[in-house]
Amino acid sequence: MRALEGHTHHILGLSWSADGRTLVTAGTNQFAFIVPRGYFVRADEAKREIRAVEVEDKCSITVRLFSTPTNGVDEATGQLKAEVFREFLLQRFNTARITETMTLNGGGRGGPGFDFTWKNDAGLTMQSRIAYLPTPAGVLEFFLLTSAADAREFRYALNSLMLTLRVGEKGKIALPQLSNKL
Length: 182
Hints:
The protein has about 180 residues and is mainly beta. The chain is built from two helices and twelve strands, in the order βββββββαββββαβ.
């Protein structure tokens, strides 16, 4: 295990290296994941989000941190309540039609996920997948945006990003060494 090293760029509370590792710091918490090859990273500290954009601009994956809603956690299990986040989604995307509800995982945590279609301001039908994962710093939202025609191809990128998620509480996060043979 080692800290993020090598040729590293730093902007706002975000660091990323040539091997695709991205490290986000929020207070004493750190989040790390690997951005898929063929994506570049944009950061927006004011919105507390980063966006990985596919080089041909066919897809974007936004990772956003926000405060956990007071009614969003089941007190008995500590899990996020799917129905609360479903309503949150439908309020945010008022033309959304949810096509599938699931549990998605990352960083040893599970949370509600939704596939949905919606129309953007230009009237184009978009396909999205959104997942919410609980962390000590709040809720991490993973949002995939693509066209309906490209959805299947880019769900893999979102899943691989989420599966590489590591969460560090109160200090530096230790990351496993990556093989240069992959």
